[in-house]
Amino acid sequence: MALDAETFDALIDTVRRFVSEKLRPIEAQVEADDAIPADILHEMRALGLFGLSIGEDYGGLGLTMSEEVRVAIELGRTTPAFRSAVGTNVGIGSQGLVMAGTPEQKATWLPRIASGDIVTSFALTEPDVGSDSGAVKTRAVKDGNVYRLSGTKRYITNADKADLFTVMARTGEEAGGRGVSAFLVPRTLPGLSIGEPEKKMGQKGAKVADVIMDDVEVPAANMLGAKGEGFKIAMRVLDRGRLHISAVCIGVAERLIADCVAYATERKQFGKPIAEHQLIQAMIADSKTEALAARALVLETAAAKDAGKDVVMESAASKYYASEMVGRVADRAVQIFGGAGYIADYGIERLYRDVRLFRIYEGTSQIQQLIIARETIKRGG
Fold first, then answer.
1. 8 Å CB contact between 291 and 253
2. Are 237 and 92 in contact (CB under 8 A)?
3. Are 238 and 125 in contact (CB under 8 A)?
4. Residue 152 to residues 191, 213, 329, Cα–Cα distance (Å)
5. Measured distance CA(3)–CA(71) in Å, rounded
6. How many CA atoms does the CB half-sphere of 231 hold within 13 Å?
7. Distance in angstroms (rounded) separating the CA atoms of residues 205 and 357
8. DSSP conformation letters of 25-87
9. CB 42: neighbour CB atoms within 10 A?
């Protein structure tokens, strides 16, 4: 159920002020420390940011998709690591439970996910399994009232601090996704360990690491959905996650455009602000037009999803366009700032590195193209 307009406007205003007053001033600190300060995480919990997409019955805000993407746009106006801190709880780490969990599973986990008392992760990718997500090799073997899970998951966001993993594992011999099931795997189970966080190109402060399972005994009651439904659950979760990421891309793009305009109106060359030079104006115009187009596509798709329509193709198109768009905007921003854009002090080079990941996770741009083409052909055009 959507919030009333006044309440939602107040939420947006609160998030916008939190981003500008609390998060943007410490971006360089987060980059240097590769960590988000504990007091900031506490404030994010207090604001309800860990429970945006979880129903009010379980302590969340219960936002619609249209509302969630607008909040994500606001969170996108700062270093993506801040959004990532809450992102798995809002998206891929919780939505399998929301969509397919039993009443008991939901009651056990969702209130603590919504409050941010526990952090979730989504464990699908493996050392040999990336875009071909139906080919997971992690095994889950039934043994009485438990499943024994063995395998390694790779590049798992928030694995370093996650308390609960949604793990995709093979429970049958069927080829592809038909043999994959989903499990809720607490971090505390014996045999589960976390690798060292990876050194990354960007998005410092948001950690990814391996999740290693060595004969981990997971109660059969922790299976999410029916046996063999894991791949379908994962794809439904990713449909929603792609819209959320698309909105974050828009927020980053809009922030970069604003930074470019502020710099270009002050920086003078050839006797006048560079904003008065037409080739600079062209880059600003291209960036603004593309950001507006992405915003329109994402808001329209979110509204369609809220109306119960099939948006598999539109979600993929949103993620494909928005993630590619913000890469182009970031590149132009470096160009407009010139030498200053390449220097760390201005933060432009940091965002340039940060946004590169958007074209890879939640499905690469190439996977989005395949989905868009498949669904377009299926629909007849």
1. yes
2. yes
3. no
4. 12, 6, 36
5. 13
6. 18
7. 14
8. GGHHHHHHHTS--HHHHHHHHHTTGGGTTS-GGGTS----HHHHHHHHHHHTTS-HHHHHHHH
9. 11
Closest CA to 166 of 156, 178, 174, 179: 156
Place of tokens 């494909």: 320
Supply the pLDDT for residue 1. 62
**Neighbour count for residue 49 (Cβ, 10 Å):** 24
Mean pLDDT of the chain: 96
H helices of the chain, in order, are 5-18, 27-33, 38-46, 65-75, 80-90, 95-100, 103-115, 230-266, 278-306, 312-337, 348-354, 365-379
Percentage of the chain beyond pLDDT 90 is 94
SS3 state at 124: coil
- pTM for this entry: 0.95
* Residue with the two structure tokens 């969990």: 101
Compute the distance between CA of residue 155 and CA of residue 197 in angstroms, rounded to an integer: 9
Residue 178's alpha-carbon distances to 162, 209, 221, 227, 301, in angstroms, are 27, 27, 20, 9, 28
213: amino acid identity, one letter: M
Cα–Cα distance, 206 to 208 (Å, whole number)? 7
Residues in the chain: 381
Report the alpha-carbon distance of residue 16 to residue 24 in Å, rounded: 11
| Structure token pair of residue 366 | 């190439």
Catalytic residue status for 6 = no
The mean per-residue pLDDT over the stretch 230-238 comes to 92
User: Minimal CA–CA distance to 238: which of 176, 169, 166?
Assistant: 166
Predicted local distance difference test score (pLDDT) of residue 175 = 79
Catalytic residue among 196, 217, 362, 375: 362
pLDDT tens readout for residues 15-24: 999 999 999 9
| pLDDT average, residue stretch 226-244 | 93
pLDDT tens digits, 120-145? 999 999 999 989 889 999 999 999 99
The token pair at 82 is 């801040």
> How does pLDDT run across 293-342, given as a tens digit for each residue?
999 999 999 999 999 999 999 999 999 999 999 999 999 999 999 999 99
Shortest CA distance to 111 belongs to which of 170, 60, 36?
60
State the Cα–Cα distance between residues 99 and 232, nearest whole angstrom: 11
